[in-house]
Amino acid sequence: MSLSAFMGTHRRKVTVFPESGGRAGGDRVLALTCHLCMKFPKTEAGKGSSAALATRSPSPAMPPLANAGQAPGPPDGGWGWAVVCGAFVSIGFAYAFPKGLAIFFKEIQDFFGTSYSEVAWVSSIMLATTYGAGFGLALNLQPSVIIIGKYFLKRRPIANGLAMAGSPVMLCTLAPLNQFLFDNFGWRGSFLILGAILLHCCVAGALFRPIGAATPPVKPQVTGKGKDALKEEVTEDAMEMGSPTKVPMEDKVEEEGGKACCEKINQYLDFSLFKHRGFLIYLIGNVLMFLGFFAPIVFLAPYAKHIGIDEYSAAFLLSILAIVDMIARPTTGIIANSKWVRPQIQYFFSFSIAFNGTCHLLCPLASGYTGLVIYAIFFGLAFGMVCAMLFETLMDLVGAARFTSAVGLVTIAECCTILLGPPIGGTLIDTFGDYKYMFIKCGAVMVLAGTFLFIMNYYNYRMLAKEEKERKAKEENPKPVRTENEGRNSWNKETTRDGPELEPLSKEQEGLKEEVNGINEV
Description:
By secondary structure, this protein is mostly helical. It has helices at 3-9, 22-39, 80-100, 105-112, 116-133, 138-151, 156-164, 166-198, 201-205, 224-241, 249-268, 277-289, 295-306, 311-336, 345-362, 369-389, 392-398, 403-432, 436-476, 479-497, 503-521. The longest helix has 41 residues, at 436-476.
């Protein structure tokens, strides 16, 4: 029986080793492969040492491979509405708690003798940790935003709008409550009571039930004993054959471990998103926007107290803003879900940011309490529009599958400007002794961000339409491309086939080249 016939009948999956050099090295590898084939014979029952090497077919009880790795689709309802209720409470506390603390800023500033820029760090740090640090209120915000994308697809803008409405509802409640707690318990006692109230988010988080796990694809596995046995056999045989090279089994295992670690990191933070054109546009625009997004809310109540408005009326401005915001968010979600707006939702988002900035630019014109009430109404409308589409537009760009990684990367980048926004506004107040420069700065930054997003989204939509047109053209005319490829393949085959016949001609050409070179040298 020939060696090739023996290998054909006793073929197994074994590790291929590099040649040690020359024909002798190849002979050693071939002999070693034959030796392994004889050491691990195939049995009828599939038992013995070959069980660690042979690939077994899945049993009938296992799900078919075609469905492996597929998770159930979003139900767009059912328990999803309970998840929206939990997200309503969780997101509400995540956003409203740092804003509601602005009620205590004037008293904390007087108690510690600090400046406006220094006291602004309180809310600024809380908001930054909520977005980018991954602890504290971030444990409220991130899971709530992500779980909605798992439960909803068609009704996702409405679900996001309802969930994000928790922020104005909580702010509307916390603003007068904080003032009441401060009058009766002081700011220290108020913080203790608010911390106890915040613990109720645990109940909301209990509603976030997993929608279902994806069935992992069936992969042939090698048991630990089989690996050890194979490794020992290969090592012993290599030593017996006198191979000068070491068996690279350990190096291979280390390389696979390193790849697995990188894949696991990339699973949670997909850095390939930085090559995504729409994601980069969204990231740059939002990082710029958050430089002026939260500062007006933080300083609205202190500004009202600064111009002589009483404490409860100043706190009521936040309640007015929150009430309008509460109505604006679900309404914006319904509008964004319409067939006219959803295909172009990025334009709607850009307009909302520019509208928000325009409100801040006009705020210094409000000289009394009535003007501040009008400002609070329009600010609440614009703020609600932006917040309702903040994460919906990101999901529209990257898709639900990559949304988790996108949210993580965006929030990490945004936390820098969120952290710096209110302190920069406080520095302007300390420097000029007037709040209007803070409002002008925030308005100008947000108008710039909205304009940037509008222009770049127009460019992105044009490029997407062009790419889609090219893709359809390739699908409609596939024959010329295939014919050309087939012609090239056939030409390569003919050239390869005629190679031995053309060797004399090639040798003659080489001889002529040598003669010419000799003449040139002379």
